[in-house]
Amino acid sequence: MATDTTTVHVALSERSYDIEIGPRLLPEAGRFIVERTGCSHAVVVTDSNVESLHGQRVVESLERAGIRVDIATVPAGESTKSTSHVDELWRLMLEFAADRKSIVAAVGGGVVGDLAGFIAATYGRGIRFVQIPTTLLAQVDSSVGGKVGINLPGAKNMVGAFWQPAAVLIDTDVLNTLPLREYRSGLAEVVKYGVILDSDFFKYLEDHIDGLNNREPSVMRHIVARCCELKAQVVSADEREETGLRAVLNYGHTFCHAIEAETGYGTYLHGEAVAIGMLCASRLAEAMGRIDAELTRRQHALLEALGLPLTVPDVDHDVLIRAMQKDKKTEHGKLRFVLPTCLGHVELVSGVPADLVRAALAG
Amino acid sequence: MATDTTTVHVALSERSYDIEIGPRLLPEAGRFIVERTGCSHAVVVTDSNVESLHGQRVVESLERAGIRVDIATVPAGESTKSTSHVDELWRLMLEFAADRKSIVAAVGGGVVGDLAGFIAATYGRGIRFVQIPTTLLAQVDSSVGGKVGINLPGAKNMVGAFWQPAAVLIDTDVLNTLPLREYRSGLAEVVKYGVILDSDFFKYLEDHIDGLNNREPSVMRHIVARCCELKAQVVSADEREETGLRAVLNYGHTFCHAIEAETGYGTYLHGEAVAIGMLCASRLAEAMGRIDAELTRRQHALLEALGLPLTVPDVDHDVLIRAMQKDKKTEHGKLRFVLPTCLGHVELVSGVPADLVRAALAG
Question: Is the reported ipTM for this assembly greater than 0.90?
Answer without folding.
Answer: yes
